[in-house]
Amino acid sequence: MSLTIGKIATLAKVSTDTLRYYERERLIEPAAKSEGGYRLYERDALRRIRFIKQAQQCGFTLTEIRALLTLRSSDAACCRDVRRLALEKKLQLEAKIKTMKVMSKALHHLIAACSADSRSLDDCPILAALERVNGVKRTNR
Amino acid sequence: MRIELFYTTGCQKCAHARAELKSAAEEIPGAVWRELDALDHLDYAIELGVTTLPAIVIDRKMIFSSLPTPRQLRDALKKRVKKSV
Fold this sequence. Notes:
The structure holds two protein chains of two kinds. By secondary structure, chain A is mainly alpha-helical. Chain A has helices spanning about 5-10, 15-25, 45-55, 60-70, 80-115, 125-130; strands spanning about 5, 30-35, 40. Chain A has a three-stranded antiparallel β-sheet with strand order 1-3-2. Chain A is elongated, with a radius of gyration of 24 Å. Chain A starts with a strand and ends in a 10-residue tail after the last helix. By secondary structure, chain B is of the alpha+beta class. Chain B has three helices and four strands; from the N terminus they run βαβαββα. Chain B has helices at about 10-25, 40-45, 70-85; strands spanning about 1-5, 30-35, 55-60, 60-65. Chain B is globular. The interface of A and B includes residues 83, 88, 90, 92 and 98 of A.
């Protein structure tokens, strides 16, 4: 049974724009087009869309998801190939978290330096700290 | 000089190349070769900037984000030895 783009979008809980975007990114492809030119999908496409959504939630980019989908359908690949990609993604996410923690700590110090009173913007310690280049305050404003 | 290979369990690519790379590294006097499972040493791998596997870190610097040939590794190590002299 073929499904229209609207029907499959509803079942997968995504928008039709998302499905068109996935198609442009070569992640899914309609099985056929109706006489009127409407996209028609097989039921298996639903599984594929859910896979894409789940992988996105784990932080995979669409390019990486394409690689995962290729692996999934490759006879030569096996579970450890997928595991390697998952581990690489975890490393990238953990590195990002580390960077964000540093950023959050920097903001914490800036917030702590501000007494939140009604002094003028010229005296704002947060703006002043952000204006410092390599710790030296710029004078040519 | 400390050479660290980060790998993932079951990576055939690593398993085949490891022995060859290890011998290439150990040709350099003073070279210490270590092999680390990235999952077991996750924090250390992140600290060194490892985001793809396998990867080779030399003296805490990410040098190869994919496996080099033994020759490429040897050349990189020789270059570092020369630099340090």
